[in-house]
Amino acid sequence: MNTIDLQAITIDKIKVPFSEKLKINLSILRLDKIHPIISGNKWFKLKYYIKEALTQHKKTIASFGGAFSNHIIATAAAAKLYNLKSIGIIRGEEPKKLSHTLQEAVSLGMKLYFISRINYSNKTLPNEIIEVIDEIYLINEGGYGLAGAVGASSISEISSFEKYSHIYCAVGTGTMLAGIIKSSSPHQKIIGISVLKNNLSIESEINQLLTDEEKTKDFQIIHDYSFGGYAKKNDELIEFMNEFYRQTKIPTDFVYTGKLLFAIFDLLKKNIFKSDDDILIIHSGGLQGNSSLAKDLLIF
Ligand SMILES: *Cc1c(COP(=O)(O)O)cnc(C)c1O
User: Fold this and answer.
1) Given CB 3.0 to 4.6 Å as the disulfide criterion, which of 79, 132, 145, 238 pairs with 84?
2) In what order do the strands lie in the sheet with 219-222?
3) What is the DSSP letter of 256?
4) Please, is 9 exposed, middle or buried when counting C-beta atoms within 10 Å of its C-beta (0-12, 13-18, 19+)?
């Protein structure tokens, strides 16, 4: 099993005719390079949960997710790295054939429990888990929580964030964005592209992870690029991801980073940036999720 390789992270310049003409500096922080399975931001969000589990002498970590969840697979991989057992509590009926993501999680030693959508939304645990709950360290769905945000704030330690005027990232639970806000400076604007449809409670969920002082920092969530909802896609998005790869050789995933980059390029077209803006885009990984797509859709 590969370890996490923080040395592999690079900041790449994105040079496309478009941004060159507008004199806008676009850079992308390649967190996708840290590990083939533990996707970029998930490691940063998990690290303090794992630490807490170890200090509490828990044997097992458990968390929640859907059949294609990057968080579930990252939890399985991170548990294995630290010799913890892992449990995935998965939304919906057990399918005849497990998704690629869940197969991978099982091969990393994760035990899966499938629960109905109703039990899932109430977070009602199966009895087998309740019986041994004292041995288990439970992590919220998507790693949402303060320890997750504090972990994500350490993303700034691996690159000098200070110099950028804008930082863009994709938003699911908002935990990563909250971490980036925590580590941002007063001159910076932090923008999150929400990948869920009309997830208007996200602002208050992010605010819950921030101190009063951090709440006054300059941040914004944009809701216009969900493409109809979580893990929804269309031809335009897929074509964009292919074209972006052709021009930059950077792969993106269709759930998070494809939508993030699509949004930034759309905003470039709409001229919302000023020349000499220095933009950092966080490539948060998630590439394993593309394995649920038909084989010939993406050129990478
Ligand atoms: C989970 C995930 C996100 C969203 O992170 P949140 O902290 O839940 O907002 C973004 N990008 C990728 C690739 C992810 O896997």
Assistant:
1) 79
2) 11-13, 25-30, 278-283, 166-171, 189-194, 219-222
3) T
4) middle
Reading the block at residue 297, the tokens are 């859709």
Among 282, 293, 205, smallest CA distance to 255 is for 293
- Nearest Cα residue to atom 14 of ligand 1: 286
Query: 155 forms bridges with which residues in the sheet?
Result: none
Q: How far is CA 62 from the centre of its chain?
A: 18
List the 85-91 sheet strands across, edge first. 110-115, 85-91, 60-65, 136-139
H/E segment holding residue 261: helix 257-269
| pLDDT, tens digit (0-9, with 9 covering 90-100), for 124-158 | 999 999 999 999 999 999 999 999 999 999 999 88
First to last CA, the chain: 24
Q: Which residues pair with 61 in a beta bridge?
A: 86, 137
Q: In the chain, pLDDT over 90 holds for what percent of residues?
A: 88
What's the CA-to-centroid distance between 116 and ligand 1, angstroms?
A: 24
Q: Token digits for 81?
A: 């790295």
Of 37, 40, 36, 43, give the one whose Cα is nearest residue 10.
40
Residue of 141, 181, 260, 284 to mutate, ligand 1, most atoms within 8 A of C-beta = 284
Pairing of strands 25-30, 11-13: antiparallel
Give the 3-state secondary structure of residue 190: strand
pLDDT of residue 2: 75
Residue 186: which of 214, 208, 159 has the closest Cα? Answer: 214
The reply to whether the predicted model has a pTM over 0.90 is yes
Does the beta carbon of 170 lie inside 6 Å of ligand 1?
A: yes
Q: Report residue 175 as tokens.
A: 């935990």
Q: By C-alpha distance, which of 43, 14, 9, 45 is closest to 29?
A: 9
